[in-house]
Amino acid sequence: MNIRSENIYMVKSKHSGFIAVLIWLIVSLPGQAVADHITGGKVSLRLSTISEFRPFIWNDESGTHGIDYDIVKEMCRRLDLHCRVEFHPWKRVLSRIEDGSSDGGFSGFKTPEREAYADFLSRPLHYSTYSIFVRTGDEFTFNTIEDLYGKTIGVMRGFKINPEFHGAVAQGRINLQEVNSMDQNIRLLTAGRIDAIAVNYHKMRMKMSELGISGGLTGLPVPITPPRPSYLMISKKWIIPFKEDLLRQMDDVMESMYEDGTIDKINSTYLD
């Protein structure tokens, strides 16, 4: 048995006893609770995410792909969980986590508002760098938020850039244009209806390449946010026996995936 296979086997054997006890406890609950938490003899985890946020997650006719999806899928495999992924607009993803319609979702920045209704794993799924993109030829100097004053900036609805940016929006110093898709933002920018887009750098580069417009838009050199961790979130309303123990098991598996090179391998599949 090679080292990679052995490491995976050790992770599975380490957690299988706990999962077996958890299943036994769940099946002793009233019928509906069992239906909510057990699928095909496995503990079920209902997760929500968005359908288009390349390279981290996207869903098309060939299936579901992306860095975050592959990491979550491998975590569930190692823990022998039945994880079902559903797709919604981002604001609905957050509301479903908050009201318990979903057991969790991915991937989101850790904020005090979200920590009130969700638990965050200790290791992130990825790090996001947000940049300002403009029409090529319309570049301007950007070093601080003040350089955006008086401009109209497109942002995906429900996405948080940073407190300074949204504080300036609340004060009326920056005009915010919220949209539901990256394609909408790009159409607005190329039509001159907004001045710039604040967006995840890697997502925007992939979308520009896909649309064949790499020469038409330019990312300003200074990012609007430094690399920021984005996490799998678990709803505080997910009621399951020994939930805290299961969260620790998730943390252990995520840590092992960082240590054994799995995270690096998944990243290289999409980013190299």
Summarize the structure.
With 272 residues, the chain is α/β, with parallel strands linked by helices. It is built from 10 helices and 15 strands. Strands 1, 2, 6, 7, 8, 9 and 15 form a 7-stranded mixed sheet that branches. Strands 12-11-13-10-14 form a 5-stranded mixed sheet. A 3-stranded antiparallel sheet has the order 3-4-5.
Q: Would you spell out the secondary-structure blueprint of this structure?
A:
Blueprint (H helix, E strand, L loop, with lengths): L2 H25 L3 H7 E2 L2 E8 L2 E2 L3 E4 L2 E3 L1 H13 L2 E6 L2 H10 L4 E5 L3 H4 L2 E3 L5 E3 L1 E6 L16 E5 L6 H8 L4 E5 L2 H9 L5 E5 H11 L5 E3 L8 E8 L7 H17 L2 H10 L1
Parallel strand pairs: 2-6, 2-7, 11-12, 11-13
Antiparallel strand pairs: 1-2, 3-4, 4-5, 7-15, 8-15, 9-15, 10-13, 10-14
Helix pairs in contact: 1-9, 3-9
